[in-house]
Specification:
Blueprint: E1 10-15, H1 22-38, E2 43-45, H2 53-65, E3 70-75, H3 81-90, E4 95-100, H4 115-128, E5 140-141, H5 143-163, E6 166-171, H6 186-190, E7 194-198, H7 200-209, H8 216-227, H9 237-254, E8 260-265, H10 270-275, H11 280-287, E9 293-295, H12 299-312, E10 317-323, H13 327-332, H14 334-337, E11 345-350, E12 363-366, H15 368-374, E13 384-390, E14 394-403, E15 409-419, E16 428-433, H16 437-446, E17 453-457, H17 462-471, E18 476-479
Parallel strand pairs: 1-2, 1-3, 3-4, 4-5, 6-7, 6-8, 8-9, 13-16, 15-18
Antiparallel strand pairs: 10-11, 10-17, 11-16, 12-13, 14-15, 14-17, 15-16
């Protein structure tokens, strides 16, 4: 069950320029609320209609009393650009601006609101105040169209609220062998994120304090039930349960002023020799609850995984953009690859951290690469603890938010699918297909210096991610769409 994500509580405030009928804005607001209800969207209708600064204060009091954390500023008519943008400025949370279309040719004297014009003035004042609200691609519509815009805003707002109330726990220095996981943390503070960096010794001490914890048998039973016949190494479950309790207790104890938290943890090579297992299965279990645990101290990987969890309200995973699909596998499965080229394909892999709900089948196994290094020619012992199998076919979106060395935020978004064929390899793995992946690999991933880890959403959420990144102030966003966009801010995910 997903936890660790915010509940979006929407509120709508209508605005009205005092030379237009206030009743027009109020009638249109009510129609939008009714349209939202038909879509199953719960939205608080503020009764204060904003015409001036005093109305702004009244509306904010209403919103606060109703625990609203995401605001729809609705131009039912032309609207007063000063007060309406002040409302968004003083509101503590993400906001969107949207405007009413004219309903009928039969009432263009007393019933004309000119909100189409008012959005232009609103946008100018938004710029003066240096605000960054969500404005839909075409932000003017009738009540049903506006309700659909609001439905999209719910997902965007959830990402923004979650990120701005997040703490990231990290354990251990980022590995020298994976310098790609190293990135400055300054931009995290710019996003409103707290970070608590810890030593591996802190984690080891906390783990040892959980030895013989009375809750361990209960967690072991949960693991046994989840794994079923895939429980190939039952002897390692008590240590994995001890580790899971360690992380969850840390989460509760040190979340502090933040509502949500995630982890980026050192997981090799000393982890195996000191803790006595690999942590992959525990990482998968926490991810399934909305608490990503990125491996290799990949702080931005953990954040990216959390962002796609917020966007989808589904468990996510982090994988390596790992290896090519062999030509003979491509030729043998031409019917399943449809019109994908060989260069559109790659294998997404990690040791065993993908939640079991996204696996066609899954088994508790051991980390083959670590086994070769740490206990060759021996039965697996300290390398046990992976959740391995084939990833389910279906829609996916890959995404990463990353800081450059000079503290600029970049992100990429690409949509595709997992193909239903046997990858014939180890780990948690699947064959991924993304249109124009070859171009994307060369001119985005390589050209813009992105690391090997990618967050995977098991749904197409490119539009949500694009709009959320814009609201968070990320200007450099790359996609796998053809490079024919006319405008920088145009969303390519139609």
């Amino acid at each position: 069950m997903i936890q660790n994500i915010p509940e979006v509580k929407l509120g709508i405030v209508a605005v009205s320029r005092d030379c237009f009928p206030i009743t027009l804005s109020e009638k249109r607001r009510k129609a939008v609320v009714e349209a939202c209800k038909r879509l199953g969207i719960d939205i608080f209708e503020a009764k204060t209609t904003v015409e001036n600064e005093n109305d702004v204060l009244k509306a904010l009091d209403e919103l606060k009393s109703a625990d609203v954390n995401a605001l729809v500023v609705y131009l039912g008519n032309f609207g007063p650009e000063g007060p309406e943008t002040m409302l968004a400025q003083k509101f503590d949370g993400p906001s969107m601006f949207v405007a009413a279309a004219e309903e009928t040719q039969e009432n263009l004297f007393d019933g004309r609101g000119d909100a189409y014009c008012g959005m232009l003035n609103a946008s100018y004042n938004i710029g003066l105040r240096k605000l960054n609200p969500y404005i839909p691609e075409y932000p003017v519509g009738d009540s049903s169209e506006v309700a659909n815009m609001i439905a999209h805003f719910v997902d965007v707002a959830r990402v923004v609220i979650g990120v701005k109330n997040l703490k990231i726990f990290s354990f251990g220095p980022r590995p020298q062998d994976f310098l790609a996981c190293n990135a400055p943390i300054k931009p995290l503070y710019d996003l409103g994120i707290e970070i608590m960096e810890n030593s591996e010794l802190d984690l080891f001490e906390a783990f040892n304090k959980h030895k013989d914890d009375p809750r361990i048998p209960e967690i072991v039973k949960q693991m046994q039930d989840e794994l079923g016949t895939g429980n190939k190494h039952p002897g390692i479950l008590p240590k994995l349960a001890q580790y899971e309790l360690t992380l969850m207790d840390w989460y509760e104890k040190y979340r502090g002023s933040c509502k949500f938290a995630i982890f980026a943890n050192k997981c090799w090579p000393a982890f195996q020799t000191q803790f006595g297992f690999v942590p992959c299965y525990v990482n998968a279990r926490l991810a399934s609850r909305g608490i990503p645990v990125a491996c290799e101290v990949d702080i931005y990987g953990a954040l990216s995984e959390y962002i796609v969890t917020l966007a989808t309200q589904l468990p996510a995973t982090i994988l390596d953009i790992n290896n090519t699909v062999p030509k003979d596998m491509y030729e043998a499965n031409k019917d399943k690859f449809k019109d994908y080229k060989l260069t559109d394909l790659f294998m997404g892999f990690h040791c065993g951290n993908t939640p079991i709900c996204h696996m066609k089948y899954a088994e508790m196994r051991y980390q083959l690469i670590m086994h070769r290094l740490l206990e060759p020619d021996k039965e697996p012992d300290i390398t046990r603890g992976t959740l391995e199998g084939t990833i389910k076919p279906g829609e996916i979106t890959i995404f990463r938010l990353q800081s450059t060395a000079d503290c600029l935020l970049r992100s990429y978004i690409a949509q595709g699918e997992v193909i239903d064929i046997d990858p014939r390899s180890f780990g948690g793995i699947g064959v991924f297909a993304i249109k124009e992946m070859g171009r994307f690999y060369r001119y985005v991933l390589i050209q813009k210096r992105f690391p090997h880890h990618t967050a995977v959403a098991f749904k197409h959420v490119g539009k949500v991610l694009f709009d959320a990144m814009k609201m968070l102030g990320v200007d450099d966003i790359s996609f796998n769409q053809p490079a024919n966009m006319l405008y920088k801010d145009e969303n390519p995910f139609k």
